[in-house]
Amino acid sequence: MRALKYDSNGLLTGVAQNAESGEVLMVAMMNAEAVALTLETGQAHFWSRSRGKLWLKGETSGNILDVQEVRVDCDGDALLLRVRPRGPACHTGNRTCFFSALEEDHAE
Amino acid sequence: MRALKYDSNGLLTGVAQNAESGEVLMVAMMNAEAVALTLETGQAHFWSRSRGKLWLKGETSGNILDVQEVRVDCDGDALLLRVRPRGPACHTGNRTCFFSALEEDHAE
Lengths: 108, 108
What we know:
- The structure is a homodimer.
- By secondary structure, the first copy, chain A, is mainly beta.
- Chain A has one helix at 32-41, and strands spanning 12-18, 24-30, 45-48, 53-56, 65-72, 78-85, 100-101.
- Chain A is 9% helix and 37% strand.
- The first copy, chain A, has a four-stranded mixed sheet with strand order 2-1-6-5, covered by helices on one side. A two-stranded antiparallel ribbon of chain A has the order 3-4.
- Chain A is globular.
- Chains A and B meet through strand 1, strand 2, helix 1, strand 5 and strand 6 of A and strand 1, strand 2, helix 1, strand 5 and strand 6 of B.
């Protein structure tokens, strides 16, 4: 129905959400290969800009995100991965990467 | 606590989530001014790449996103806006921009 729209670097935004609790776990970029592998394997894959490589989330930690559903937004440049996490989603050991409140004096 | 990390275009990713239901509503980019205005006004502001301008979500439709809390991720390049929407978040009239399931044959 809806074509995916990758940016000039071949990337779109992926948002992983715990399908059961609704908690937003992480945001990372995906290229076409990451999208295809996520759909094929049912495990969330991303593109690491800092490392310049494809990345199976949890490949070293074991904290795989098993994907139950993938949703796409109205303009096709963001995907919502509804997942069941096998462990903490954040490399810090926190359940979510969004464990900090933004305080106003740190926003600028 | 955590400095925000804007990309080479001065942007980071904003994810708006209904604070009550947990539904993910939309993903859009934010520049420093959008972040500052969001915090100052309590209404979600974004940066429109296609229009090249700052954008108060709902400025024409009235479907403002009132922001209850802003959270930042572990590497400082994504914000989670926990909001109370005044109406449908999507310009299509849908409650969320993620109203479509991605089907495997449309992903490539």
